[in-house]
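User: Here's a protein and a ligand (shikimate-3-phosphate). What would the complex look like?
Assistant: Let me lay out the input and then the predicted complex.
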Amino acid sequence: MANKILIKKKINIFKKKIHVSGDKSLSIRWVLFSSLASGISKSKNLLMSEDVMASIKAIRKLGIRIIFKKDICYIYGKGIEGYKYKKNLIINAENSGTLGRLILGLLVNTPYPIKLIGDQSLSKRDFKRVTEPLSKFGPKFKLSKNKFLPLTIYGNSTLNGINFYEKIGSAQCKSSVVFAGLRSNGTTSIKAKKSRDHTELLCKYLKLPVSIKKKGLYDEIKVKKVKKVKPLNYNIPSDISSAAFFIVLTALNKGSNLIIKNVNINPSRIGVIRILKKMGIKIKFENKKIYKNEKIANIYVEGSSKIKPINCPTKLNSEAIDEFLIIFLIAAKADGISYFKNIGELNKKESPRLKWGAKILNLMGIRTVTTNSSIKIFGNPELQINKKITIKNFLKDHRIFMTSVIAALSFGGIWNIHDRDSIKTSFPNFLKIINDLKNND
Ligand code: S3P
């Protein structure tokens, strides 16, 4: 099958219930926590994507048995010090920043050097943001050009807790330091700008020696050395970052409505919902419940005829960090100018997403004014595309592919969108769900 997709027609009105796949952040964290447990951990609805499989391969390389039986994944943890380190080990994080950065926190006491590599996109991303704090625990790092993969970690058998001020709002940096803190003597104190808190919630659920104080824009986290991690049986809820594509597709198609079942609505992840609600989109959470400290709900969304522009509050930036591309499509149809600022982090993702967001909007005929960290989007409520558009992102960013598909189905035109395989990293059945929505029976 060609590694691209041609879309020539807008989607018809739909009214459906769907399930999207398991949460990526939770799936990767489940693999990593379970790899430290004393005993067998099981998960259901684990996201079967390349990022998660890369995590499984990495943990298997450390001597931990992982098997699948039907739709259940089993990890045979051998305790906190149960990894079997070998000489000349290479771990490939492929496309996953989360895996690459979090796993380093677990490898700080490796007796042999370990090389960490990644794909073309990951090799362009900053790893100094994690190696700098991690080196204060005791290990040493050799990075390519001082900042990038491939890198080598030289572990240290004596690790001491650190003080770390995490200013970016990066859950990956925060989590990596939490993992290293769990292996270290003394106390690790982290002052962290707010970001997704799955790691902390899992530590709390597992009763690990981690305390969290929420303070305004920052959290204070204290971590002590862990002796034992109990096995973690987890039914992974659906990923709001995957749901977001269908929320926007529905919102842009008046007359449609959609229920997305069993989605993780952790407050640190629902920026997209808060922003879309401010823009006038009708969205509701139904059947709310708590599962192992995480909030879960069905999401109901309706197509809108009138979309308001937004001056997006920066306090929502970290909560919506993976959803801005898709939010920009809503802004494209708003009745006025939307403004998103302090979002320079977007250019540090799988590809420079702020630049790409502007590029896609401009190809659609939408005017934008961008800086390195902001974008103004001049919305057009009558937007109707009548031309050919080709999207080819050489870094094969999954979210650029999926955003382009949603734009094509919502605004018309003839779209030739390359790199369909990119969805395998986070949302392999994305196109199948699109097809199910098209078959409106
Ligand atoms: C993630 C954190 C975010 C996010 C990424 C997943 C995580 O990155 O963009 O897709 O699971 O911790 P940063 O922590 O670098 O902002």
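Summary: The domain at 24-227 is CATH 3.65.10.10 (UDP-n-acetylglucosamine1-carboxyvinyl-transferase; Chain).
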